[in-house]
Amino acid sequence: MDVRAAVATKAGAPLTIETVQLEGPRAGEVLVEIKASGVCHTDLFTLSGDDPEGLFPAILGHEGAGVVVEVGAGVTTLKPGDHVIPLYTPECRTCSYCLSRKTNLCQAIRETQGRGVMPDGTSRFKMGGKEVLHYMGTSTFANYTVVPEIALAKIREDAPFEKVCYIGCGVTTGIGAVINTAKVEPGDNVIVFGLGGIGLNVIQGARMAGADMIVGVDINPAREALARKFGLTHFVNSNEVEGDLVQYLVGLTKGGADHTFECIGNVKLMRQALECAHKGWGKSTIIGVAGAGQEIATRPFQLVTGRVWQGSAFGGARGRTDVPKIVDWYMDGKINIDDLITHVMPIDKINDAFQLMKDGTSIRSVVTF
Ligand SMILES: NC(=O)C1=CN([C@@H]2O[C@H](COP(=O)(O)OP(=O)(O)OC[C@H]3O[C@@H](n4cnc5c(N)ncnc54)[C@H](OP(=O)(O)O)[C@@H]3O)[C@@H](O)[C@H]2O)C=CC1
Ligand SMILES: N[C@@H](CCC(=O)N[C@@H](CSC=O)C(=O)NCC(=O)O)C(=O)O
Ligand SMILES: [Zn+2]
Ligand SMILES: [Zn+2]
């Protein structure tokens, strides 16, 4: 079938809206009509060429929501008409990672996903007779896509696609990092570096967990007012701090934070986030994704003296199990998504969404089909 897609032809170039040929679902696969997709910083990161796994030409997008159109042979858990959110972290429930119960990083299809192909090693997308690659196993910047059954969360049918698509990455990543990975406890002090589409959800998660001080660090003063609505108690504009930022934050939290989160992807800030965690017990969780060749550094003494450095992918969430519950939280008014979706536009305007993100003007843009 012909589908409309925003194609990333090469690193650094704007996406182009194209008619692409999509083959139907093979065994274990599902054809999904994508109704809406958020644009995450990671899409921009991959498009920039900084992602060691970035491949072109490809159809980016990993924050979608839509409706099942057709299922391939052997698919038992989904049927046409079901509403779904594609998962870049699948949940097969049978691989050793899933069975360990120690991680959400299902590895059942990770290798082929990283090569931009379906689990059988081929792509379903073609343009002008040539293969176009999948991205993160989801490729949601197309009005139809094919996704493995194990990478689809079935959600309730009354949830609005234009809002709950954000649960496909940003919401789950931020709230999940607090609840599943860091396990923030009532009364904890928290510092969040980067108050964008992820960091604001970390703030929202910290408030849900009952944190006491919730400190946000950003260079964009426009982020303060919105962050306060989500639970921020102290805003720090790092450009305005005189002297050492780490010392300032340690002072503000009277010895360092119980938990810090890096939500930018900057290795220097990852170090600062670790070093303003409390001596003896502070935990620092890296969420931001850093480019090829970037490495983190600190004095080992920082760890010897009890700080813990860890990371979180997709908020430690097991998507098929947890995503439907997070959709319920939104529908029940327990979490706020609406105020974070600052722009909605048709897919034809997707390059505007990337520009708004680069300019620091948007929190989340959602494209519709
Ligand atoms: N681990 C995971 O599972 C996931 C990781 N990510 C990653 O998380 C990171 C954040 O994504 P997202 O929230 O969408 O990105 P955004 O661009 O929305 O947010 C980043 C924020 O950090 C601010 N910032 C930039 N530089 C600095 C600085 N030097 N000091 C303080 N603040 C700064 C930005 O300001 P300004 O707006 O002015 O630039 C912006 O407010 C990215 O690296 C993304 O790839 C995303 C999803 C999942
Ligand atoms: N491909 C990159 C790493 C990109 C990355 O870390 N992705 C996150 C999700 S970011 C979503 O917006 C993730 O889940 N990582 C786990 C994984 O298995 O990819 C690189 O090679 O550096
Ligand atoms: Zn993302
Ligand atoms: Zn698995």
From TrEMBL:
<dbReference type="InterPro" id="IPR011032">
    <property type="entry name" value="GroES-like_sf"/>
</dbReference>
<comment type="function">
    <text>Has high formaldehyde dehydrogenase activity in the presence of glutathione and catalyzes the oxidation of normal alcohols in a reaction that is not GSH-dependent. In addition, hemithiolacetals other than those formed from GSH, including omega-thiol fatty acids, also are substrates. Also acts as a S-nitroso-glutathione reductase by catalyzing the NADH-dependent reduction of S-nitrosoglutathione.</text>
</comment>
<dbReference type="InterPro" id="IPR036291">
    <property type="entry name" value="NAD(P)-bd_dom_sf"/>
</dbReference>
<dbReference type="GO" id="GO:0004022">
    <property type="term" value="F:alcohol dehydrogenase (NAD+) activity"/>
</dbReference>
<dbReference type="GO" id="GO:0106322">
    <property type="term" value="F:S-(hydroxymethyl)glutathione dehydrogenase (NAD+) activity"/>
</dbReference>
<dbReference type="InterPro" id="IPR013154">
    <property type="entry name" value="ADH-like_N"/>
</dbReference>
<keyword id="KW-0520">NAD</keyword>
<dbReference type="GO" id="GO:0080007">
    <property type="term" value="F:S-nitrosoglutathione reductase (NADH) activity"/>
</dbReference>
<keyword id="KW-0862">Zinc</keyword>
<dbReference type="InterPro" id="IPR002328">
    <property type="entry name" value="ADH_Zn_CS"/>
</dbReference>
<feature type="domain" description="Enoyl reductase (ER)">
    <location>
        <begin position="12"/>
        <end position="367"/>
    </location>
</feature>
<dbReference type="Pfam" id="PF08240">
    <property type="entry name" value="ADH_N"/>
</dbReference>
<dbReference type="InterPro" id="IPR013149">
    <property type="entry name" value="ADH-like_C"/>
</dbReference>
<dbReference type="GO" id="GO:0106321">
    <property type="term" value="F:S-(hydroxymethyl)glutathione dehydrogenase (NADP+) activity"/>
</dbReference>
<dbReference type="InterPro" id="IPR014183">
    <property type="entry name" value="ADH_3"/>
</dbReference>
<dbReference type="GO" id="GO:0005829">
    <property type="term" value="C:cytosol"/>
</dbReference>
<dbReference type="InterPro" id="IPR020843">
    <property type="entry name" value="ER"/>
</dbReference>
<keyword id="KW-0560">Oxidoreductase</keyword>
<dbReference type="GO" id="GO:0046294">
    <property type="term" value="P:formaldehyde catabolic process"/>
</dbReference>
<dbReference type="GO" id="GO:0008270">
    <property type="term" value="F:zinc ion binding"/>
</dbReference>
<protein>
    <recommendedName>
        <fullName>S-(hydroxymethyl)glutathione dehydrogenase</fullName>
        <ecNumber>1.1.1.284</ecNumber>
    </recommendedName>
</protein>
<dbReference type="Pfam" id="PF00107">
    <property type="entry name" value="ADH_zinc_N"/>
</dbReference>
<keyword id="KW-0479">Metal-binding</keyword>
<comment type="similarity">
    <text>Belongs to the zinc-containing alcohol dehydrogenase family. Class-III subfamily.</text>
</comment>
